[in-house]
Amino acid sequence: MNDRELMFTPAHKQRQMIVDGEISSVEMTKASLRRIAELEPQLNAFITLDEQGALAAAKAADESLASGLTPGPLHGVPIAVKDLEVTKGLRTTLGSTFFEDWIPDYDSVAVERLRASGAVILGKTNTPEFGNREETFTNVAPTCNNPWDPARMPGGSSGGTAAAIASGMCSIGTGSDGGGSVRLPASFCGIFGHKPTHGRIPRFGGQAKPAYNSAGTSGPMSNDVRDSAILNQALAGFDARDPGSVKAAVPDYLAKLEDGVKGMRIGTTMTLGISDVNLDVAAAVEESWSAFSELGANVEPVDIKFDPVPRDAWWTLWTAGQVAMYGHLAEERPEDLMPYTLDMINHGKTLSGADVSAALRDVQNLQLKMHQLFEEYDLVLAPTNAAVAWPHLDPPSQIGTKSNDDEMAGINYGAIPFTMVFNSSFNPASSIPAGFGEGGMPVGLQIIGAYDDDATVYRGSRAFEIARPWSGTRPQVS
Q1: Which terminus of the chain has a lower count of CB atoms within 10 Å, N or C?
Q2: Does some domain include residue 290?
Q3: Which residues, including other chains, have CB under 8 Å from residue 197's CB and lie 6 or more apart?
Q4: Residue 299, φ and ψ in degrees, nearest 5
Q5: By the 8 A CB rule, do 385 and 415 touch?
Q6: Number of domains composing the chain
Q7: What are φ and ψ of residue 277, in 5° steps?
Q8: Could you please report the per-residue DSSP string of 218-231?
Q9: Which residues, 6 or more positions from 322, have their beta carbon under 8 angstroms from its beta carbon?
Q10: In this structure, what are the phi and psi dihedrals at residue 192, rounded to the nearest 5 degrees?
Q11: Is the pTM of this model over 0.85?
C-alpha cells in the first residue's frame, strides 16, 4: 500500500492496522508527513506543522502498544487539529497576528481528549482569524486552497482541516463550527463533517478569551462517517470548565450506526424557507433524496418558514461575542486585525443590551420550533450551501434567480444561508458529499437531527454513504 492509499484508508482501519502490527504508528505518521510535504505547497492546509512532536507521539503510541496497554479508539492515528484549539507546547495562532507567537501551557478539552484517545497530532490547520470567515485566509499564513481546484477557496473556517483530509494528507481531523465552519468546508471540499449537539463537546480552550457561547462547538471531519462518529464519541462528555457542557451520559454514536433508515420519517427542503440555491446544487441535492426512499425511509417535503429569519439573531449574538472576546484588541491595535474581524467588532459595539436580549428570545423561539419539527421527523435533509466553492474572494453574483448581494463584514452569506440556523437551534447536523456541480466541484447534503440525537444523524449519514459512495473520486491535488 503506497502513501496515498494509506492516507485515504479510513482512520478506524488505520488504527486496526497499527494494533494488529501490520504497520507501526511511526510508519503511519511518516507516510502522512510525506504526503504533507508533497501537497502542502499547493494547498497551505497547515499554519504550524509539528513533525518532531508527531513522531515522538507516534513512537510513544508504539511503545505503549508493545507494553500491553489497552489502545485508545484512535491509537497511533495521525490527526489534524484546527488552529483554534489550544495545544500545550505547540504554537496556537487562532489565525491572528496577535497570537502568532503564542505557545500555550495548557490543552483545550478537545485536545486533552484527542491525546487520551491515542491520536497523533500532526500540527495546526489553517483558519481565518478567530474563525470569522467563510473563506480561509489570514495574515499569519498563506491562503488555503481547495484540493479540487486550487484557484478556489476551500470554505471556512475549518478550511485547512478540510483541505488536508480531502487531499489525503491525513484521514481525520478536528474543526469547529459556530455558523457552519465544519459543514461548509466539508461540503466545498467533498468530505464528511459533523456539527454535534451544542454542549456535547466542551469548549474550554477552544478560543482565546471566554465569552457566552451562543453557537460554537468543536466537531469531527473525515473521509468516512464511522471515523467521525468515533472521534465525536472520544471528544464528547461533560467538563466542569465549560458552563454550557451537557451534564448527562454521552449517547452511543456507534451502536446503531449500521441499522439504516428503513421506516424513518424524513423531511426534505431545498430552501429551508430562507434562500434559493443554484441549479447545480439543487440537482445534486434532489437526486440524493431518492437514496433515502430507496432505502425504505418515508420521505416527504417539509414546509419550513421562519419569522424572523434566524440569521439576524445569530449575527447579533456572534458580533456581540466578538466584542466580548476581542474588543480590547480593536482598542489596542485595530490595524492588525483582519478587516472582517474589525467589522464584526465595530458592529457589535453598536448593539444595545435590548438588542442582545431580543436575539436570545428569538433563538429560544427557534429552538422551540425545532423541537416541534423533530416531533414529526427523525431527520431533515437540505443543501449545505447554495453554491459550490467559488474562486478566491469572488462569490457567485447570482443565487438561483436572485442577485447575490447578501454580505456582512465581507462574508457572502447569500451563498451560505443554511448552516447557522442549527448553530442557534443547537441541533446536530452533518454535511455529506452528494455529487458534483459547476466546474466538477463537490456538493454537500446537510442532514439534520433532533436535539441530542447525533446518533440518528450518523446513522442516516452512514446509510447514505453506503448507498451513494463518494470516496472513489479524488481531487486534482491528492
Answers
A1: N
A2: yes
A3: 246, 426, 427, 428, 451, 452, 453, 454
A4: -105, 130
A5: yes
A6: 1
A7: -130, 160
A8: EEEEESSHHHHHHH
A9: 130, 132, 341, 344, 345, 348
A10: -100, 135
A11: yes
DSSP code, position 71: P
**Amino acid sitting at position 16:** Q
Residues catalogued as catalytic: 82, 157, 181
Amino acid, single-letter form, for residue 359: A
Report yes or no: 221 and 154 within 8 Å, Cβ to Cβ: no
Q: Which set of grid coordinates corresponds to residue 387?
A: 453554491
Would you state the cell numbers that stand for residue 53, as one nine-digit string? 512532536
Q: Cα separation of 222 and 36, whole Å? A: 16
Closest Cα partner for 185 from 134, 128, 123, 125?
Answer: 134
Cell of 394: 469572488
The type of residue at 468 is R
Residue where the block lists cell 435590548:
354
> How far apart are the C-alpha atoms of 182 and 232, rounded to whole Å?
13
Q: Tell me whether residue 473 is in a domain.
A: no
Prior bond of 128 cis (ω within 30°)? no
The region, left, alpha or beta by phi > 0 then psi within -120 to 50, assigned to residue 343 is: alpha
Looking at residue 210, its pLDDT comes to 57
Low-confidence spans in the chain with pLDDT less than 70: 207-211
List Cβ neighbours of 428 (8 Å cut-off, separation of 6 or more).
194, 195, 196, 197, 422, 448, 449, 451, 452, 453, 454, 457
Cell numbers placing 35? 504526503
Nearest to 236 by CA among 224, 212, 223, 220: 220
CATH number of the domain bearing residue 439: 3.90.1300.10
Q: Over the Cα atoms of the chain, what is R_g?
A: 21
Alpha-carbon distance of 453 to 459, in angstroms, equals: 10
338 closest CA partner among 133, 146, 156? 133
Output phi, psi for 420, to 5 deg. Answer: -65, -15
In the 8-state DSSP scheme, what is residue 318?
H
Predicted local distance difference test score (pLDDT) of residue 341: 98
Which residues lie below 8 Å from residue 335, measured CB to CB, with a gap of 6+?
A: none
Residue 127 grid coordinates: 483558519
Range of the domain at 277: 3-467
CB contact at 8 A, 236 and 195: no
In a domain, 478, yes or no: no
Q: Which residues contact 31 (CB under 8 A, 6 or more apart)?
A: 3, 6, 7
